[in-house]
């Protein structure tokens, strides 16, 4: 790291704001896996969740706080005592913790949502920061809907919360309304107008409703901001948040422009992106900057010729610097337990429980029998779904007949609590027939909300990862299946989703 640049703090909120994307909910174990990858990537702050939101969120923040040692772990809390106390409890065992407390400051939010007077909002913000300081000396305060707040009010509230002990001041563009020039200028004015602004780090948190989240964040950096809140793959509420990989690589690639540098180890970007995508079931679009499959693919002859003659004619970054090419052939059917476990360790995936590793190793062997080359992506997809809490429905057999001009037909055999059940169904396509056959046994009353297929690696023997999102009684679950046979992967994903619904039911009934 050179010395003449300021540090840009990378605050990742994939596990909190990212998880707020409809259908992107993650289990505690999945959150730990992602948090470990973020830690390896050297993310400064990991926002692990919103501790008061549910017992599951509390446990996830607590577990991430215990698992992660090198990054600071943060919990979100509204600016009210119970939220802050809960966040403090969840972070108790963290090596380094942060409480991130927020309240809305825009006229529209204060009047209609909070139904509070600005002076009461200011008082509550100060109280919240003081309460949070009783749990940790690292407190962040966010002015929700800050980009639509009155400047004079913002200056007063920021000065007051800094005096109360907030070390980071975040002014989010909560609704994605900001424009780069205007949003950057807002930070410049705030930093110049708040008398104690030198006592805090200013932070940006941008949503992507107008596709400007990264541009707005970078404009803020140009105007004095030294923390960016962002997510892997730009996951987040509605159109998402600023994408971590784009922020990090923009700052790194344009060192001639940006007066900052990050401590991120960018070679972990692509594997982390893959992991987040396989856990959430949100595919990465092929033309997505940095992590999309085509991000470094030159199709046009003129480009290929140029790149071969001199790489920098058309390439501004090297694919391997962001972790492409790390999916080299690593293992095969002759690889033993130690090699598989070691590769998982290198990928940041630890198995504390011997039974869990055994299950993965068996899946690995099955896959290696079908597919010669086992890539890192395959290893990630093998662990996707490993923590499925109950296997109420298990796939015993599947046969699908499909012929041009006839309706496809699926024959399925499911094992339910030790008993075999068979069914057959026709469908408009082979996947439709498979799902109908499953439903004729399961009769789940769930609604199919999303079906997506992704090839994990290249080639026709690639594993397909299928995500199936089901909704029942307002509960959304994502089932994931991976197999070299896309129909088997589809059936597995559907059953995984049914199992998640069933495990929710069991928990409710206390079984
Ligand atoms: O978008 C937003 O304003 C937020 C805050 C809670 C930081 O997510
Ligand atoms: Zn947000």
TrEMBL record:
A GO BP entry? L-leucine biosynthetic process
Query: What EC identifiers does the entry list?
Result: 2.3.3.13
Q: In which pathway does it act?
A: Amino-acid biosynthesis; L-leucine biosynthesis; L-leucine from 3-methyl-2-oxobutanoate: step 1/4
* Every Pyruvate carboxyltransferase domain range: 8-270
**Which terms are listed as keywords in the entry?**
Amino-acid biosynthesis, Branched-chain amino acid biosynthesis, Cytoplasm, Leucine biosynthesis, Manganese, Metal-binding, Transferase
A GO cellular component annotated for this chain's UniProt record is:
cytosol
Needed cofactors, names only, are: Mn(2+)
Q: Which domain of life is it from?
A: Bacteria
Q: Where is this region: Regulatory domain?
A: 394-511
Q: Name one GO molecular function term.
A: acetyl-CoA C-acetyltransferase activity
Catalytic activity as recorded in UniProt: 3-methyl-2-oxobutanoate + acetyl-CoA + H2O = (2S)-2-isopropylmalate + CoA + H(+)
Q: What class of enzyme is it?
A: transferase
* Record-listed Mn(2+) binding positions: 17, 205, 207, 241
Q: Which Pfam families match?
A: HCS_D2, HMGL-like, LeuA_dimer
By sequence similarity, the record places it as follows:
Belongs to the alpha-IPM synthase/homocitrate synthase family. LeuA type 1 subfamily.
Subunit note: Homodimer.
Its recorded name reads 2-isopropylmalate synthase
């Amino acid at each position: 790291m050179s010395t003449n640049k300021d540090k840009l703090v990378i605050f990742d909120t994939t596990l909190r704001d990212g998880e707020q994307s409809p259908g992107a909910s993650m289990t505690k174990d999945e959150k730990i896996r992602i948090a470990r990858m973020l830690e390896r990537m050297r993310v400064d702050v990991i926002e692990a969740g919103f501790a008061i939101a549910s017992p599951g969120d509390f446990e996830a923040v607590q577990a991430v706080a215990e698992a992660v040692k090198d990054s600071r772990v943060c919990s979100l809390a509204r600016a009210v005592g119970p939220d802050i106390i809960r966040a403090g409890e969840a972070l108790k065992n963290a090596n380094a913790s942060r409480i991130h407390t927020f309240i809305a400051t825009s006229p529209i939010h204060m009047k209609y949502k909070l139904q509070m007077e600005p002076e009461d909002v200011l008082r509550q913000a100060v109280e919240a920061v003081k309460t949070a300081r009783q749990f940790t000396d690292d407190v962040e305060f966010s002015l929700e809907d800050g980009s639509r707040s009155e400047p004079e009010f913002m200056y007063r509230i920021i000065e007051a919360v800094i005096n109360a002990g907030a070390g980071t001041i975040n002014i989010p563009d909560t609704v994605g309304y900001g424009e780069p020039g205007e949003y950057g200028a807002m930070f410049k004015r705030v930093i110049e107008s708040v008398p104690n602004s030198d006592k805090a780090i200013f932070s940006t948190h941008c949503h992507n409703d107008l596709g400007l989240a990264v541009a707005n964040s970078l404009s803020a950096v140009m105007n004095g901001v030294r923390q960016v809140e962002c997510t892997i793959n730009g996951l987040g509420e509605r159109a998402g948040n600023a994408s971590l990989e784009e922020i990090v690589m923009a700052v790194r690639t344009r060192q001639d422009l940006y007066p900052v540098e990050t401590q991120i180890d960018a070679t972990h970007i692509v594997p982390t992106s893959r992991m987040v995508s396989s856990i959430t079931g949100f595919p990465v679009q092929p033309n997505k900057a940095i992590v999309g499959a085509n991000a470094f693919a030159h199709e046009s002859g003129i480009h290929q010729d140029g790149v071969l003659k001199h790489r920098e004619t058309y390439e501004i970054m090297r694919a391997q610097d962001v972790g492409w090419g790390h999916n080299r052939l690593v293992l095969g059917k002759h690889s033993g337990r130690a090699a598989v476990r070691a590769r998982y360790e290198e990928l940041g995936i630890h198995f504390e429980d011997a039974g869990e590793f055994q299950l993965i190793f068996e899946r690995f062997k099955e896959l290696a029998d079908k597919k010669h080359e086992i890539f890192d992506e395959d290893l990630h997809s093998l662990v996707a779904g490993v923590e499925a809490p109950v296997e109420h429905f298990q796939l015993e057999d599947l046969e699908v007949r499909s012929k041009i001009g006839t309706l496809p037909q699926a024959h399925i055999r499911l094992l339910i609590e030790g008993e075999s059940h068979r069914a057959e169904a026709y469908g408009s396509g082979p996947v439709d027939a498979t799902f109908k056959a499953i439903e004729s046994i399961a009769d789940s009353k769930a609604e199919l909300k999303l079906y997506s297929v992704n090839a994990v690696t290249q080639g026709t023997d690639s594993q397909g990862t299928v995500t199936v999102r089901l909704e029942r009684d307002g509960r959304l679950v994502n089932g994931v299946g991976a197999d070299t046979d896309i129909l088997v992967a589809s059936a597995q994903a559907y059953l995984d989703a049914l199992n998640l619904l069933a495990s929710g039911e069991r928990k409710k009934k206390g079984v």
